[in-house]
Amino acid sequence: xxxxxxxxxxxxxxxxxxxxxxxxxxxxxxxxxxxxxxxxxxxxxxxxxxxxxxxxxxxxxxxxxxxxxxxxxxxxxxxxxxxxxxxxxxxxxxxxxxxxxxxxxxxxxxxxxxxxxxxxxxxxxxxxxxxxxxxxxxxxxxxxx
Length: 145
Description:
Layout: H1 5-8, H2 16-21, E1 31-36, E2 39-46, E3 50-51, E4 56-57, H3 74-79, H4 89-94, H5 104-107, H6 111-115, E5 126-127
């Protein structure tokens, strides 16, 4: 991939490899969300297919066959950007902003996402399969617009 390709191309011009490289593997898009008074609230429950230690989907190639999985595309970014956290590279670039300084494409390592406290590994999350919804908390620090 070309260095700083995201500064030279629009999202629609990216190759599949470049598009995938934008994901910082924070895991936030895999959190259960609620819409309250037109505001998206992220909970501490994650999709049962998410590995919370790696922040990667266990069924990545089949994920879009699920009803609750967010397929990030240009159409999704224009119609439902609120489903993504404000730190999401796709959302930031779609809004004409740059990647944050902790993004792996800048630092060269995914560890920077954890070190900067932008990964769900920094929070206690529970699989959505857990029946104890009474422990639900709202992660205000990552709520979306």
